[in-house]
Amino acid sequence: MTSPFDAPSPAAAPVDRDAKPQYVLPLLVRLEKAEPPARTDALETSARAVLTLLADPRATGEGEWAEAVHAWEDARIRKVVRRARGGEWRKAGELPGITVTGERAEVRVFPPIPLDGWPKELAKLQVSGTELSDPEEWRPAAPEAGLPVLWLNPELAMSAGKTMAQTGHAAQLAWWRLDETQRKEWAESGFALAVRTPVPGHWRELTGGDLPLVRDAGFTEIAPGSCTVVADHPALRG
Fold first, then answer.
1. In-domain check, residue 27
2. Is the pTM here over 0.85, yes or no?
3. Which residue of 27, 121, 145, 186 has the smallest Cβ count within 10 Å?
4. Cα→Cα distances 151→48, 55, 80, 198, 221, Å
5. pLDDT digits (tens, 9 = 90+) for 181-197
6. What 3-state class would DSSP assign to 107?
7. Cβ proximity of 39 and 30 under 8 Å
C-alpha cells in the first residue's frame, strides 16, 4: 500500500518537496497463507523496521545507503508496503535490506529507490491483499508504562498495508524529534514500541498537544490531510 505523508523532512521545506526527485521506501511483509501475522504485530514490526533502517550505519554519514536516504527525506516521504510469500519472499530477501521480526510478523525494509525504479523482484509483488486481523488470543493488552506508543485514529478505517505505512511514518517523526542519546537508548531496546487504538476522547487529547502527528497526503484510501497516527514517545513529553 502506497502512503506518502505531509510532514516536512529535516532537510526540505514543505513548499519544494514535490519539485525534488521522488523516492520511496519499500516495505515487504511476509504473508504465508497458513500462518499470517496478527494485525497489531505487523503494524509494530513495520514501525520497528523503519527505525532500524534509519539507525543503520549504512543509512547515515558516508554509508552506502546514505545518499538514497537523504534524497528520500529531502522530498515527500513515501512508503509502499507490498506482500510476499514462499519463493517470492526468499528472492526479495536476496536484495539489500533488513528483515525485522515480531511475534510472528516478518517485515523486510529496503533502502529508498526512485519512484519509478523498482527492482523486478519487488515490482511484481502485490500491494493489495494485506488484510489482517487480531485473533482473540492475540488481543493487544494495555501498553506497558514508559513504552513508546503509536496511537491510531479510532475514526479512520484503513487496510493493514496502509496502516503499516502510517505507523512507519509516525515512528520516523518521533525519531526526528529525539536527540542522539535518546535515539541510542531506543535502538538498544530493539525499538520497543506498541501500536494501539485509543478511545475517541483520548485521541482528542493526544492530537491537542505537541506530539508528532501524521497527516496523510490522501493519495489512497483516506481524505487528504487526515490525521492517522500520533507518536507518543516518553522523551517527547515535557
1. yes
2. yes
3. 145
4. 15, 22, 20, 6, 19
5. 999 999 999 999 999 99
6. strand
7. no
Phi, psi (deg, nearest 5) at residue 54: -60, -30
Distance CA 42, CA 163 (A): 9
Geometric angle at alpha carbon 228, from 190 and 145, rounded to 5°: 40
Q: Is residue 209 part of a domain?
A: yes
Helix (H) / strand (E) containing 50:
helix 39-55
Task: Classify 119 as helix, strand or coil.
Answer: coil
Give the burial class of 225: count Cβ atoms within 10 A of its Cβ; 0-12 exposed, 13-18 middle, 19 or more buried. Answer: exposed
Asked whether 3 and 169 are in contact (CB, 8 A), the reply is yes
Q: Which domain holds residue 191?
A: 2-7+20-128+143-236
Which residues in 187-219 are b (16+ Cβ under 10 Å) and which e? eeeebebbbbebeeeebeebeeeebbbbebbee
Structural domains counted in the chain? 1
182: helix, strand or coil:
helix
pLDDT in tens, 38-73: 999 999 999 999 999 999 999 999 999 999 999 999
First to last CA, the chain: 35
Q: Is 12 among the domain residues?
A: no
